[in-house]
Please model this.
Amino acid sequence: MTPSLLSTVLSGDLPRSRLLALALAAIVLALAFAPFLTSGARPLNAAATICVYIVLVASYDLLLGYTGIVSFAHTMFYGIGAYGVGLGLAQLGAGWSGALVGLVLALLLTIALALVVGLFALRVQAIFYAMITLAVASSFAVLASQLSDFTGGEDGTTFSVPELLTPGFRLIEGEIAGRAIDGKLLTYYLVFFGCLLLFLFLLRVVNSPFGRVLQAIRENPFRAEALGYRTMVYRIWANLLAALVAALAGALMALWLRYVGPKTMLGFEVMTDILLIVVIGGMGTLYGAVIGATLFILAQNYLKTLMADGAASLAGIPVLAQALHPDRWMLWLGVLFVLSIYFFPSGIVGKLRGTATPGHK
Model:
């Protein structure tokens, strides 16, 4: 790919760091060829989760890093997209029409809720807006848990997907590079390319005149208002775009998992994961979502296994073996997070680029 074509694809937002460019290229290539580089369900599931979380975190960074809006309702829109597709397939049958109807209804509900939340809540101060979005998201999660006849309640709902995406489907006979071209592979590439297009769309948004106005609002909303920009309108549009992308990410995750549940799609743990990834990767740069999501999901999936191996190898040193006991993986994940904040206060991408993210000098 020529430099000019690459710049066009990335909307002119080049990595501006050789190390960052290499890291991004390695991640994209690893995700693109993950089905052929790994074997087993766990690595492929981790790769699909990384793809979805990159888009989910990037859409949240559009609010937090680029516009300065602190919202706790992002998982609600993510869950709406997931439940829309899941319930559409569960209620209307495992066909593309069921998925499409569910997705359209989910996007319409997302637009309505994003506008309502934006119109009423964005007029208050930042801390009150954060509390309002937290209350709305919590209420929605409780509602999904209580409507058990429709949503499956706390247990969630499993559903069938269109035949093209089922593991038993074979696009061609035989294998390519040792991998069967089955429905699971097609589902993975649906998730991969869907997330890639959504990420490139977000890059286009933040590097457009609209995105530059959002950054001006983040830096000084009063000056932006004085220059003639209707800051409230821009904030509402940013909230709407972020919500729609989050809903689409949820829809892709539902197709991959073939399951929707309140804890997986609407839990506050998902929101805290998003916040951690934004801080680790770096606010105000979508590439931070790529680096942060990759590191975080890999740590979630493999840190416990690595600690178990480490504890086994240090069995002769009881103190170290106990410190690395797999049950303490959350503790060490927290330690790694604290260390990343200490050594990379502007996020990993901010450090690699040699610039500070919003709020850091």
Remarks:
- The domain at 3-353 is CATH 1.10.3470 (ABC transporter involved in vitamin B12 uptake, BtuC).
- The CA atoms of residues 77 and 113 lie 9 Å apart.
- Residues 41-67 form the longest helix (27 residues).
